[in-house]
Write a structure and sequence with these properties.
Shape: globular
Helix content: 40-55%
Number of strands: 12
Strand order of the largest sheet: 9-6-3-2-1-12-11-10
Structural class: alpha/beta
CATH architecture: Alpha-Beta Barrel
Number of domains: 1
Number of helices: 19
Radius of gyration: 23 Å
Largest sheet: 8 strands, parallel
CATH class: Alpha Beta
Distance between the termini: 8 Å
CATH superfamily: Glycosidases
Strand content: 5-15%
């Protein structure tokens, strides 16, 4: 069935406390999606951000970002006073100041924690999530005590999880451990209330999980056998991408690689647990860098570029046979299959049956025919005008080679009656793709000021925020009319 949705990060929503949250503006955005005739709200990973502020590099693949806990809701609960919330400088409403959030948010949430009384619901949450929550709370508490250093730089007794050292630490830091459990409880409570509100209005949530986890994470610290590490918890090989036309040095991500031999030996239990958790948070899961399951690029640890990496074989279809046996044949997964696609990767995607991605901005290479041109699609795909890693359409039109932009205008029969961005949006909506996802900055006709991330750069990313008056009934009607015209309304 033909459907559509909008990609809009939680952090980009309006709010008075420095970053988008699960508060009233998120509910208003759900209402906007409903008015606009949409079926999906796609978001970016909800995990805590670490160095570089990227949601794709997190201290945990299970934990939620404390920044998304809405302070006004805590005030309404009586856990926080308005005076306390207003006493902190969280930055302006126009952009996200992660340095200020890092400096103040934890302290502000601690006020709420001190007023919180443990309830049966809280205790039930802690029990059901103990398989990741206990290690995460311990990881974050030790990290703070160790001067926020990466865990591979901790004192040996903590780094190596020596039982006596950990038990003694837990005994002397029980309140701080409970504080981190409280944060995750409030995050989860607010998130599931918002998700329930969306689902009741016919809006499904498309979540996003990175294929890899960060080296400095509770995941690696607590279960290092799942990763290719030496005895000192240092990676032997790390993830990245090889040099290409866009980067002569390639991309050095630095994530530890999986020990696929170990994972296969226990039936991929780690992945089953991770996917099960993701499917509880979201209705549909987009898996980033899907091609890494067929073969992955492995770079020697310590290299300064990605030039010396080699391709190594991944688990391929074997992993997904195990997952389908666990979760059923029709696992709601979107495969991010962008980048260097070999016949082997294409066969893996075909054999899983998962829809892949088409990004219209990649379609208009004037030098050659592209698989991303709409006339080359089959139905089982998800078409995007652009993603969080792309410039906006109008930004692209200014920075792309002139011949590519002219090719796009000719292909789209662009006459200039309305914005060039809406020509691409209409092409996505009119395509045969089962699902079309529109990028919110493109709907707002923003230029590069609406860009969210520039890959392989640090600083200035993940900061875009929508203005509170930008989400209007007029825009909802425009999107609704287009959605109806191209047969993508929820009820046909």
């Amino acid at each position: 069935m033909r459907k559509s949705g909008i990609l809009m990060p939680i952090f980009s929503l309006p709010s008075r406390y420095g970053i988008g949250t699960f508060g009233k503006e998120a509910y208003k955005f759900v209402d906007f999606l409903k008015k606009a005739g949409q079926s999906y709200w796609q978001i970016l990973p909800l995990n805590p951000t670490s160095y570089g502020d990227s949601p794709y590099q997190s201290f945990s693949s299970f934990a939620g970002n404390p920044y998304f806990i809405d302070l006004t809701m805590l005030i309404d609960e009586g856990l926080l006073t308005k005076q306390q919330a207003d006493s902190y400088d969280f930055g302006s409403e126009n952009t996200i100041a992660y340095d200020k959030l890092y400096k103040h948010r934890k302290d502000c949430l601690h006020h709420a924690f001190l007023r919180f009384e443990k309830t049966p619901e809280y205790l039930d949450f802690c029990g059901k999530n103990a398989f990741w929550l206990d290690d995460y709370a311990l990881f974050m508490t030790i990290k703070s005590a160790q001067g926020d250093r990466a865990f591979c730089e901790w004192d040996a007794s903590f780094k190596n999880r020596e039982k006596d050292a950990l038990e003694s630490f837990k005994k002397h830091n029980a309140q701080e451990l409970d504080f981190h459990r409280f944060i995750q409880y409030k995050f989860t409570s607010q998130w599931f209330s918002l998700k329930k509100y969306a689902n009741e209005r016919g809006i499904k949530i498309i979540g996003d999980i990175p294929i890899y986890v960060a080296l400095d994470s509770a995941d690696v610290w607590a279960d290092r056998e799942q990763f290719l590490l030496n005895a000192d918890a240092v990676p032997t090989l790390v993830a990245g991408c090889p040099p290409d036309a866009f980067s002569e040095d390639g991309q050095l991500w630095g994530n530890p690689l999986y020990n696929w031999v170990k994972m296969k030996g226990d039936g991929y239990a780690w992945w089953k647990q991770r996917l099960s958790f993701a499917l509880s948070l979201y209705d549909i899961v987009r898996i980033d860098h899907f091609r890494g399951f067929e073969s992955f690029y492995a770079i020697p640890f310590g290299d300064k570029t990605a030039k010396n990496g080699t391709w190594q074989k991944g688990p391929d279809i074997d992993l997904f046979c195990e997952l389908k046996e666990e979760f059923g044949e029709d696992i709601p997964i979107i495969a991010e299959d962008l980048g260097f696609m070999t016949d082997e990767v294409k066969n893996l995607l075909k054999n899983t049956g998962f829809p892949g991605m088409k990004v219209l901005q990649f379609a208009f290479d004037s030098r050659e025919e592209s698989d991303y041109l709409p006339h080359n699609y089959d139905k089982n795909c998800v078409v995007y005008t652009g993603t969080h890693d792309n410039d906006t359409i109008l930004g692209w039109a200014k920075s792309a080679p002139e011949r590519d932009v002219e090719y796009a205008k000719k292909y789209l029969d662009f006459k200039g009656e309305d914005g060039f961005n809406f020509s691409l949006i209409r092409a996505a909506m009119a395509s045969v793709a089962d699902t079309a996802i529109l990028f919110m900055p493109d709907l707002l006709s923003l230029g590069s000021e609406g860009r969210i991330n520039i890959p392989s750069t640090l600083g200035g990313n993940w900061r875009w925020r929508i203005k509170s008056d930008a989400i209007t009934d007029s825009l909802a009607k425009t999107v609704y009319d287009m959605t109806k015209l191209y047969g993508r309304l929820p009820n046909g």
